[in-house]
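Section 5.1 Outputs to date
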Amino acid sequence: MADAVRELRADGHGQARLATGELAPPGPRQARVRVVASGYSLGTERHMLAAGYRGRLGYSAAGVVEAVGAEVDPHLVGRGVAVYGAPHAGHADRLTVPLTLAAPLPPGEDPGAYAGAGLGAIALHALRLGRLEMGASVLVAGLGAIGQWLVGLALAGGARVLAVDPRPERIDLARVQGAAAVGTLDALGDELVDHERLDLVLAAMGSEDPGIARQLVALLPLRGRLVVVGDLPLDLDREALFQREASVVVSRAGGPGRYDPVHEAQGHDYPVAYVRWTEGRNLGAVVDLVHRRRVRPQAFETHRFTPATAGRAYAARDAVGAILSWDEG
C-alpha cells in the first residue's frame, strides 16, 4: 500500500510547488528513507522549470532508513544514508531508493550534512574522466554548486586549482576552499604563468555561447584535457584540437550505472572488479571525504530553505549551495 509524501514538484508552467504524492513500499534491493534534507542543483532545476517539466525536482538527498525490502540486510534500518539519482532521489520528505543509489553514513553523522553528496558524485565522476593526478594544475570554469564541488574534490586530490566565474560571491567561496579564483578567462594570465600549464580544464557552466568552449580549448597545452560537466555547446575547431592533440570528454552524471534500469530501478550492482567506480560508489567516496573533512560542503552552503519556502530557491540568484531541510516544518 502506498504512503503519502510531501514533495517539491514542477507544475509544467515554470513554477515549483509543494505537493502530496504517493510512495510505494520498498521492493527487493530497495530501502525507504525518511529524508532529513535534500540538496538543490539550481542550474539544472531552473532549466527544467523553464523547459516546462512536470514532476518531482531534485536528485540528491540524505536521511535515515525506515524500512527495507527483500534481499536487504535488516540492520540497515535506522542507519543514515545519502541517496542520489532521479527519479528515485529528489526533493521529498520520504523516498524509496535502490541500494545501488544509496551510501551509508558513518554512525552518529548528521544526514543533513550530506544532502548535496549527489552533486559531489557528479563532480567526482568528471574528475575521474579527466584523469586527475596529484600535483596537476586544474581550471574549474563555472562556480555554481557543481563547480564548488569540483574545486573541493580537486584540492582534496592534491591538485593546484584555478577557478573562474564572473560572480564575485562565487569567487570568494572558491577562495575560501583554497583555489586561486578570478572573474574572467582573460584575467587568468598571471595565474597561468604561476601554474606553468593546465593539465585539466573542467567546464561547469551552462551557456548557449559556443565561444566559451573554444576559449577553454585555447587554454589547453599539448595533450591537455577538457571535461564538460555543464550544458555547453561544443562547436569546436578541429585544427585547434589537432595542434594540441587535445582530449574533450562530456561527463554524464554520477558515473557508470546512470540511466541503466537494471542497475538503478532493479538495484543490481556491477561487479566491483570490472566497474570500480559506479555512481553509487562515487557517492560513497564523497561521503567518506566529507566525513574525513577532506571536502567541506558547508564552505559553499549559502542558503537553507524549509518546505514552506522551498519554491523560493529558484528565485534566489545569489544561491550556490542550497539545502532544503525537511525536518524544519
